[in-house]
Amino acid sequence: MRIDIITIFPELLESPFNASIVKRAKESKHVKIVFHNPRDFTSNKFKQIDDYQYGGGPGMVLMIEPIAKCINSLKSKRNYNEVIFLTPDGKTFNQKMANKLSNYKNLILLCGHYKGVDQRIRDNFITQEISIGDFVLSGGELAAAVLCDSIVRLIPGVLGDESSALNDSFQDNILAPPIYTRPSDYEGLKVPEILLSGNTPKIESWREDKSIEITKKLRPDLFKD
User: Fold this and answer.
1) In the chain, count of helices (H) and strands (E)?
2) Rounded to an integer, what distance in angstroms lies between the CA atom of residue 155 and that of residue 102?
3) Which of 105, 122, 177, 190 has its CA 20 to 30 A from that of 113?
4) Contact predicate 16/149, CB 8 Å
5) 85 or 171, higher pLDDT
């Protein structure tokens, strides 16, 4: 998979992508992540990429020219499955969307900043708009990091045990069951006996029951789907 990220602050993403699973995925060539700064695509001699909004109002807006040129430059080199804009008013991201995106070959992620981007970009260049929650960030970079982490770990071969991702919360529209590790008894706090029994069918049944119990308690809305 290749992920091209359009951002005016690539330094915000360097640390998240140079540690843990995403770093290993890059090193093993399961994913290639490339940053592109719109300032490199503007014809403005001062490298200006934002301006005041028409009609008045507070906040600066990212201009259409540098972003359009950047996207067109990328699309001239390869075909992209999606051109995604990270925005608070996009469709709320979930595990189902992560699973779908993880099967794609090429993605473009556009990170907004300031007040946002010229609407003409959204109307003519973007194929999907995604939000990571009902709140506003300073820019789309952190949202892009969240999205990338969630989909990269699903790419076959990235995790040491591929079945691990299949047992995560939300994969079957339910939350994951409780998990425990050594010691089995810590100052009287004991691990459930069933998990120490070695009886795999009973353990799996216990886990399923616990997942349903926890989901009903914490996220009953998931059963509506």
Assistant:
1) 8, 10
2) 6
3) 105
4) yes
5) 85
